[in-house]
TrEMBL record:
Residues 1-23 form the signal peptide. It comes from Ramlibacter agri. Keywords: Signal. SUPFAM superfamilies: Periplasmic binding protein-like II. InterPro entries: BUG, Bug_dom1. Coiled coil: none annotated. This is Tripartite tricarboxylate transporter substrate binding protein. It comes from the Bacteria. The keyword Signal applies. PANTHER family: BLR1237 PROTEIN (PTHR42928:SF5), TRICARBOXYLATE-BINDING PROTEIN (PTHR42928).
Length: 325
């Protein structure tokens, strides 16, 4: 090998070896953008706006929340995937990130795993199964028994095709062998109105979105996800208590992802900083008021969660024959 070639190769190796440390040491060198691929007021948007000023104080740079909704979150997600892998553009992801690969299998413009570096899970929101009060069921066993005795007679609502609410019910159908009819709506409000009115009989929803209606007696909650009961609806038994632990898979989770090829030490730096901010008492209390529980972890744990969820939802989509609208 020529001396010049050797020197160039050696220099390149040194740069490559040094670049991870350089990436973390120099971060952030300019404002950081938290991309929310949904509209303002969504769960990921709520979390982003609560932690942005605290991250800004920690990093000494502005942290900007940028909403890029559309195409079931795909527009904002693609934007984040194509951003430079330097930590200055991060994606506020939710569990639909692991559903869309199955729904948009042939035309998703990014890879949900390969195009992102997991940073940390941030929080969870419990889901609950709500029924119209006229439905003669009080718990999961009586619901399953009633559904099996009346196959195809119960209609369930969702805020749209391929939403977590839709996927949750399809998971219930395939796991416990019941026949229910899907009625998709364009958003949660129309679905909730018809559930209360009796046009549909049941629906999955996040606890915060249905708690008020339940307290008013307009819907009945028969189960909630989680390893313990929700503090917002403490009288509602968990799926696990009732022997339906498989439904815990439908918990809504929130996480932060970086573009792929983000330096490993920068991933660790981001994991540490997000974890510390999320686990402050004021952040946990503020999110608890929104029905969100802080749940952080390692990048590897988030990667494993994403991988398992993608495989799970692919099976559900294939079994139910779900296709994008």
């Amino acid at each position: 090998m020529k001396r010049s070639t050797f020197l160039l190769s050696a220099a390149a190796a040194l740069v490559a070896a040094a670049s991870p440390a350089f990436a973390a040491d120099k971060f952030p060198s300019r404002p950081v953008t938290l991309v929310v691929p949904f509209t303002p007021g969504s769960g990921s948007d709520t979390i982003a706006r609560i932690i942005a000023p605290r991250l800004s104080a920690r990093w000494g740079q502005p942290v900007v929340v940028e909403n890029k909704p559309g195409a079931s979150g795909n527009i904002g997600t693609l934007f984040a995937a194509r951003a430079p892998a330097d930590g200055h553009t991060l994606l506020m992801a939710i569990n639909t990130h692991t559903i869309t690969p199955a729904i948009y299998r042939n035309n998703l413009p990014y890879d949900a795993e390969r195009d992102f570096a997991p940073i940390t899970k941030l929080a969870e929101a419990n889901f609950t199964l709500a029924v119209n009060p006229a439905l003669p069921v009080q718990d999961m066993k009586s619901l399953i028994a009633y559904a099996k005795a009346h196959p195809g007679r119960l209609d369930y609502a969702s805020p749209g095709n391929g939403t977590p609410h839709h996927m949750a019910m399809e998971l219930l159908k395939s796991t416990y062998g019941v026949s229910l009819v899907h009625v998709p709506y364009k958003g949660i409000s129309g679905a909730m109105t018809d559930l209360m009115g009796g046009q549909v009989q049941l629906m999955f929803a996040s606890v915060p979105s249905v708690r008020t209606q339940a307290q008013a007696g307009k819907v009945r909650l028969i189960a909630v996800t989680g390893d313990k009961r929700s503090s917002q609806i403490p009288d509602v038994h968990t799926f696990r208590e009732q022997g339906f632990a498989a439904m815990d898979a439908i918990d809504a989770w929130y996480a932060v992802l970086a573009p792929a090829r983000t330096a490993p030490d920068l991933v660790q730096r981001l994991n540490h900083d997000f974890g510390e901010v999320m686990n402050t008492e004021d952040v946990k209390a503020e999110l608890a008021r929104q029905g969100l529980q802080v749940r952080t972890g390692t990048p590897a744990q988030l990667a494993d969660l994403m991988h398992r969820d993608i495989a799970r939802w692919q099976k559900v989509v294939d079994s139910a024959g779900i296709k994008a609208d």
